[in-house]
Amino acid sequence: MTIDWAHFTPLASLGGGALIGLAAGILFIGSRRIAGISGIFGEVLSGARDGMGWRLAFLAGLLAAPWVVPGLAVGGGEARFGVSWPVLFVAGLLTGYGTRIARGCTSGHGVCGLSRLSPRSLVAVLCFMASGMVTVTVLRLLSGEAS
Amino acid sequence: MSRLLAWLLPLVAGLLFGVGLIVSEMVAPAKVQAFLDVGGRWDPSLALVMGGAIAVALPVFQLARRRRPPAPHGPVEGRLIVGSVLFGIGWGLSGYCPGPALVVAGGGSGEALGYVVAMGLGMALGNRYGARELRRA
User: Fold this and answer.
1) Cβ within 8 Å, pair A66-B22
2) Gap between the Cα atoms of A17 and A8, Å rounded
């Protein structure tokens, strides 16, 4: 392992993370809702009337975020390992299906679940971190890029 | 709670959440993949995003818990593990998890929009196959 100090951004990461935690905290204190993105988006897609209003409002805020932050990069930029459309499509399918059956993603299990000290969420986080790391390692080896 | 607040509160929370994802660079797939590349040139930054988020959210959630008893934690089942592993593969392949994908799509990226459409299809599949057990769990 080599740590890439040149790209290490501790202040932006901590600060951005704190904003995410604040957002999750506000939603939980204010309305006892969990700021889990896959749950919010997935429930909207399921068409469940109950709770549709607050979910749409949250998603509207999320989608509007790139337009209210002046000067910050909006686009995601290129993936490190160039992603073709078929790969992107498969990745989206796996993420959508996986987060639905596991009932959460980086936000619901990662931020909110761990903050609630949920054992389920800890298991989920360890699983998606591990499989994400294995996946990227395989991509790097296939790409022939030197580590 | 007034009707206005019922809309305003989640709107502001969603906005703050999205701004946090942008500031922390969770919206950059290359940054995410560099974080997951522990065996290569590892950029540990994104561990601090979760650290920073939990540092703020944990006291809030625990305080709220004292005021009202929390919902019980469910059991750890196969679906939780299989689903999380599948999600991790999708996350690693693309560099996008659901929140950042929505934010970047909201900013007008065709790539992120394509990913969000596929993610929506995956979610619809998940809703259809296993949704009933999900609600019971």
Assistant:
1) yes
2) 15
